[in-house]
Write a structure and sequence with these properties.
The structure holds 2 protein chains of 2 kinds. By secondary structure, chain A is mostly helical. Chain A is 71% helix and 1% strand.
Chain lengths: 293, 243
């Protein structure tokens, strides 16, 4: 990074640290924080979408759809997260390759499963045999995002379903009295009012999602926790910057990072909750009315 | 998401048709110096990286390294995420049931116990011994009367000895040697060396005979012309057993 980093052994302490903290692995460490935040930004809307679909399915009066919704919500919530994080990318990855195999290689005569091995023809490999490292990273990241969205979508679905039920019955009765159909009253009355009931649950799920991001390493993505462990471990003179076990400092940095993220989110949710309570028939809404009056 | 997947598919396919020659993806752990490790420039380095690159060059293959966690390194090979494993992996019967191995490219590395100075040798029989999980060393400790304390990474086994959670660590001597040398007398080898397994080899899928034969022939060739020995001495010192 700096011009003076040629012979680190001879440097005074501050310069040694300047070089050490800007080494290639450290830059990757800093980058991994961005990857974690990018995952959060991508997963949040996906999980919210999955949750909304799940909640609507659970509410549906069409039996198979309602069963599907209930099955999704209960199965995913009932199985340890880590199992799903391992299962989804493998199952989805092999599923994609299986389908591509059926399409591209109809004349293939060997079995796909040979003992322990999962073998598809060359054209069915996904990402392709010669895909760039970049494409593979995007693929791994996409798989991780899907796995997170599936797992957290189930929790969101349950929260949103509860929030829909919490909208006072009198509101819906009034909508019906105006002659609105079930769909209209849902869109115009339930949907806008449910969020204030959903926010506490959603904020819980968001905090848990933040804390679940270290599971990324299970999916082959080098996240902040991986790098903290890798960089903090004692380094012998095989490395340019040998040092004793510094893991405690690296984990301290992680601790501050995650606390900062959750603190910021808590504030954001507080503001959101205030905004959504305005004019609502809830205790918070009532307090705002009194304060304004 | 769908769009992304489709774009990816298109990308992958176009890449697949342009190049006639397939990339061989080589899995490694990247956390086991001097066999394989990520250096301070965030590049892979080590004996196996040098050896792997030399082998690919001789075979005229384009190779690409992939870093994978040790605990899932065999399942991901079998699932086709990469095509070979070079990660200081000892050839054992249990592993040979799941994947196949080339001939060894390094003799069964002597393993040693390392402990804080002043630790009594009896801990080998009756103490708490740290080892990396899913290694031959962990298997050895599990079979002995000592208690086994497993850690997912090699780093953590060293930290456990320094921190007193374990009385000693059992690992490849080549991995432990720098720690002993640089500890200024704090860490020492205790007891006798043990030699588990039939040496270290490259793992490939059982269905991938062609690739195994290619690399097997090249290892034989490199043993004969002495280039393998040069690499062994470069990374493990003069005392290491050569072919």
């Amino acid at each position: 990074m700096f011009a003076f980093c040629v012979e680190p052994d001879l440097l005074p302490q501050w310069q040694w640290f300047a070089c050490y903290l800007t080494s290639g692995t450290h830059l990757a460490f800093y980058w991994s924080f961005l990857v974690v935040m990018l995952l959060l930004v991508v997963v949040a809307p996906l999980a919210l979408g999955m949750g909304m679909l799940g909640a609507l399915a659970v509410r549906s009066r069409f039996f198979p759809l309602s069963w599907l919704g209930k099955g999704y919500v209960n199965v995913v919530r009932g199985v340890p997260d880590i199992v799903f994080f391992l299962f989804v990318p493998i199952a989805l990855g092999q599923g994609i390759e299986y389908v591509l195999h059926q399409i591209n290689c109809p004349d293939w005569d060997q079995p796909i499963r040979q003992g322990n091995d999962f073998i598809v023809c060359r054209e069915a490999r996904f990402p392709g045999v010669n895909a760039s490292a970049w494409a593979r990273n995007v693929y791994a990241f996409g798989m991780a995002a899907i796995a997170f969205a599936l797992v957290f979508g189930a929790f969101v679905a349950n929260t949103l379903h509860g929030a829909m039920q919490a909208v006072p019955r009198a509101q819906i009765e009034t909508a019906e009295a105006y002659g609105m159909t079930r769909g209209q009253s849902f869109r115009r009355v339930v949907l806008p009012q449910m969020w204030v009931y959903a926010i506490p649950g959603l904020s819980n799920i968001w905090q848990i999602l933040i804390k679940a991001t270290p599971l990324l390493f299970l999916l082959g993505i080098q996240d902040a926790v991986f790098w903290a462990r890798e960089l903090g471990g004692a380094k012998t003179s095989l490395y340019t910057y040998p040092h004793p076990d510094w893991r405690v400092w690296y984990f301290l940095v992680l601790l501050v990072f995650y606390l900062f993220l959750t603190w910021i989110s808590e504030r954001a949710f507080g503001r959101l909750s205030d905004g959504l309570s305005r004019g609502q028939a809830t205790a918070a809404g009532e307090r705002q009315r009194r304060a304004a009056a | 998401m769908k769009k992304l997947v489709l774009t990816l598919a298109a990308l992958a396919f176009s890449a697949g048709t342009v190049l006639a020659q397939d990339v061989v993806r080589m899995g490694t752990e990247g956390a086991y110096p001097p066999f394989n490790f990520i250096n301070d420039n965030n590049e892979l380095e080590g004996f196996e990286i040098d050896l792997g690159n030399a082998m690919c060059e001789r075979a005229g293959l384009t190779c690409e390294w992939v870093i994978n966690d040790w605990d899932t390194i065999i399942p991901n090979l079998v699932a086709g995420n990469y095509d070979t494993i070079m990660a200081g992996m000892s050839i054992t019967e249990a592993r040979a049931e799941v994947i196949s191995f080339t001939q060894n490219y390094k003799y069964g590395d002597p393993s040693s116990f390392m402990a804080l100075a002043g630790t009594d040798e009896s801990v080998i029989e009756s103490g708490v011994i740290a080892a990396q999980s899913n290694t031959v060393q962990a298997g050895l400790v599990a079979e002995s009367d000592a208690s086994l304390l497993e850690y997912p990474t090699p780093d953590e086994t060293i930290a456990a000895v320094r921190g007193g959670e374990a009385d000693a660590v059992l690992a490849d001597r080549a991995f432990l040697a720098p720690f002993v040398e640089e500890s200024g007398g704090e860490l020492v080898f205790i007891g006798d060396q043990v030699t588990p397994g039939d040496g270290i080899g490259m793992g490939v899928r059982q269905s991938d005979n062609e690739l195994r034969e290619t690399f097997d022939a090249i290892i034989a060739e490199m043993k004969q012309d002495g280039s393998l020995n040069e690499l062994l001495i470069q990374w493990f010192g003069e005392d290491t057993p050569t072919f």
